[in-house]
Amino acid sequence: MPMLSAVPQAPDHAAVCAERGRWALAGLPSISPALMVPEGRRAVVVTPDPDDEVASLGGLIHGLHFLGRPLTIIAATGDAGGASSHNPPEYDGEAQVQYAPYSGALHRLGVTSRTEMDTAPCRVMHAGMEKGALHRNETALAAFLAWRLKPGDVLFASWRFDGDPDHEAVGRAALAAAAIVGAKCIPVPVHAWEWATPGDTRIPWHRARRIEVDQYGLYAKRKALSGDGVPGDPHLESHGARQPYEIVLL
Fold first, then answer.
1. What is the distance in angstroms between the CA of the first residue and the CA of the last residue of the chain?
2. What is the CATH number of the domain that holds 116?
3. Are strands 71-77 and 90-92 parallel, antiparallel or unpaired?
4. Is residue 3 part of a domain?
5. Would you say residue 99 lies in a domain?
6. Mean of the per-residue pLDDT values of the chain
7. Residue 229 has pLDDT above 50, yes or no
């Protein structure tokens, strides 16, 4: 009796593209957290929504915390008035700064502890703006950021051509605020990895750099995104949130 041969299945085009994309990103020039945020500088991460910073830059945040760099996370949306007992209101120049309670993801990342040995407490702030309407509040967001930035800060914000209206509004506001204050702004592609493919001319590859995430940072990031053993959000997975590197544009 003749043997039936297996019918070859067509390759999954999306999976092939995703694998090629991972190899392309892994081949980019690398840069260390210590080089991006020199000693004596503060890192400020601006994100459209709370916890987005862990998905896009959790490894960097974990590494900077380990290096002892001061850290501030600013979410454009969220409760602007919620100040926790751990983070009382403070005054920075003429601007009153309200710090919000720690997010679950940042807490699980291990960067929000307040002990005598903690040289780089990670502070969290919400601008309290409406989700999905940041493009209408871009000027107000830029002013909010400018009041709270200092000259010499290194600002990380979503890329202004990211392909998502909220992300792009945050990117433009961050660039404007950094220019006013004299801070450095580093764009971070996030949503772009959902539509860009290797070699896509819309991505400025010559500016792209890969931040290596060590095994400790990768473990902390995976734990932060999984949420105490609960499987991670598939939306975050699509951003390459669990890869051992993160991408910025210098």
1. 65
2. 3.40.50
3. unpaired
4. no
5. yes
6. 78
7. no
